[in-house]
Structures are given as C-alpha cells and as structure tokens.
Amino acid sequence: SDVCSSDLSTVEACDQPPQYVGFAGDCDDLDEMRYEGNAEVCDTVDNNCDGRRDEGEACSASNCTTHEFGGRVYLFCALGVNWHRAQEVCRELGGGGYYGMISVDGAEEDAFVGDTIATISGGDDAWWLGLNDQAVENTFVWDNGSMATFRGWATDQPTNRGTRDCVQTRVAGAPAGWSVLSCDRTNYMICEELPR
Question: What CA–CA distance (Å, rounded) separates 40 from 26?
Fold first, then answer.
C-alpha cells in the first residue's frame, strides 16, 4: 500500500503482482510513511528506515535528545520548566499521543536514566520524573496513573512536606537519587514513549 518495497520480499511472475512497486528500499510495506530517505518525524516510528526512531532533528524543536532503552524511545529535554509544563510538553510532542512523562519501572531503567543524564549534563542538573503524590499525600503514582512499584529515593527521601508533591532525579550533587519538591520548581524533563 505504500510507494516502496522491501528488498526482503520479492516475487517472480509473468504478470505484475497486486501491490507491485517499481523500486526497493522500504522497511514496512503496510505504512506509506516508512521508507528510506523519508524525513524522520517526532512520532516514535522509524520513518526513514535507518533502525532508529525520532533521531536527529525530529524532536529537537523542544530541545530534546533521543535515546532508546528496552525497545522504547525516551526524550531528555533540556528545558527549564515546572512539573505541570513538563507534563504538557511531553503530551504535545509529535502532535500528541506519542509521549508522556517518564515512569521508571526498575533498577535497570533507573540506571539508564542516570547514565544518560550524566552523559548529557554531567549529572549535576535535576530532571523531572512523572512521579507525584498530588492527589493523595504519600501515595506516589506515575503521570500515566500507575502505582510506583520501584523507587530510587535519595537518602532521607521522600521529605513530603507542604507543597512538595513532584519527584525529580539527580545523579550528582546533593541529593543524588529521587527527591520530592514543589511542582513549581524549574527542572529539565524526561518523556517516554507511550505504549501502543
């Protein structure tokens, strides 16, 4: 149904088969927007068939760099925004419906986040996670509504006093690890590909 064909699927026939295309270089015959040379778009799909998703300039309008882990795309965005604006930006990327704020599900993903932050900024900056207890004090849930089963709290955290309802992470400086802060504070942000 698209304008290209896969090099991996050929048919020898006397007559032109249905859905015949005249040239190869495609990575998905069912999606006309996926072919070699196509522009990459901020939509979690490998639009240009190079084996990477949302790379290069695709999501750079939001000052984000793309990284992949566990088959998912993550956007580390060096935007100084409060937690609520981070939530909005993640949801709006790529036209909406592709990304949400990150939910860290285990130690391996937490290590990936820490390593990536250290590579991007040296680790001294704070980055918003999607974790918060805005609805019920001391009941931490992710931006996607799921309960937090893994937590990478820094020493003496969570210190959940007053308006401290949103969670940040740091890999250097004090405190290293997750900590609870006011949602109005300005930090960088991390978005994660939503399940489809």
Answer: 14
Spatial distance between the Cα atoms of 166 and 62, rounded to a whole number of angstroms: 21
> Is residue 69 within a helix (H) or strand (E), and if so which, with residue range?
strand 64-69
How many other CB atoms are there within 10 angstroms of residue 178's CB atom? 21
Cβ neighbours, 10 Å, residue 163: 12
SS3 state at 21: coil
pLDDT by residue (tens digit) across 69-114? Answer: 999 999 999 888 999 999 999 998 877 788 999 999 999 999 999 9
Phi and psi, residue 95, nearest 5°: 90, 5
pLDDT at 7 over 50: yes
**pLDDT for position 1:** 47
Instruction: Report how far residue 93's alpha carbon sits from residue 90's, in angstroms, rounded to the nearest whole number.
Output: 5
DSSP lists the bridge partners of residue 188 as 127
Given a contact cutoff of 8 angstroms between Cβ atoms, the answer to whether 178 and 153 are in contact is yes
- Max CA separation in the chain (angstroms): 76
